Amino acid sequence: MARILLILASKFIILSILSSSGLIQCSREDDHDFVSILDRKLLGLKEEKLSRFRIYWHDIVSGRNATSIQVVQPPNGSATGFGIISMIDDPLTEGPKLSSKMVGRAQGFYALSSQEEIGLLMSMNFAFTVGKYNGSTITVLGRNTVLSKVREMPVIGGSGLFRFARGYVQARTHTFNLKTGDAIIQYTCYVLHY
């Protein structure tokens, strides 16, 4: 009996220390068992900052080294291409030339999702491969009306140095080749992250 009391007392002391240090949160009656409130510092989250960067997205649909592959061709002959879906693994560079320094890849898909105009649903990760951002990503998901001068799409998350990211990107067509369908798009990204 004395041994059981000793074990219970030591567990109570350990739980008291962990609870008072903030490592364990005690639940109130209205809390749910599967939810706990965490201290940002325990996750290594520091002050939030706003970063702006400009990159160029190279969508290459022609030639042997295409980086955009159409995976769905709809049965109808829509003038807007409604229903077409393409997978992408597009280079991201510092400058508009493909020979510029590559900083990452845009990986995901876009789908022609409008019957009224040429409008895309974009779902892609900007996966960075250089410098301190190597291995980090930001996720873009939104509507892209490609004939508009400036298109704005939300940043809905990220990984690595962009954990808990939010913000938006602005897309501007730098060049579009009517003959090949290849495009270079300038993306200016505004991202809040820790």
From TrEMBL:
<dbReference type="Pfam" id="PF03018">
    <property type="entry name" value="Dirigent"/>
</dbReference>
<dbReference type="InterPro" id="IPR044859">
    <property type="entry name" value="Allene_oxi_cyc_Dirigent"/>
</dbReference>
<dbReference type="GO" id="GO:0048046">
    <property type="term" value="C:apoplast"/>
</dbReference>
<keyword id="KW-0732">Signal</keyword>
<keyword id="KW-0964">Secreted</keyword>
<feature type="signal peptide">
    <location>
        <begin position="1"/>
        <end position="26"/>
    </location>
</feature>
<protein>
    <recommendedName>
        <fullName>Dirigent protein</fullName>
    </recommendedName>
</protein>
<dbReference type="InterPro" id="IPR004265">
    <property type="entry name" value="Dirigent"/>
</dbReference>
<comment type="subunit">
    <text>Homodimer.</text>
</comment>
<comment type="similarity">
    <text>Belongs to the plant dirigent protein family.</text>
</comment>
<comment type="function">
    <text>Dirigent proteins impart stereoselectivity on the phenoxy radical-coupling reaction, yielding optically active lignans from two molecules of coniferyl alcohol in the biosynthesis of lignans, flavonolignans, and alkaloids and thus plays a central role in plant secondary metabolism.</text>
</comment>
<dbReference type="GO" id="GO:0009699">
    <property type="term" value="P:phenylpropanoid biosynthetic process"/>
</dbReference>
<keyword id="KW-0052">Apoplast</keyword>
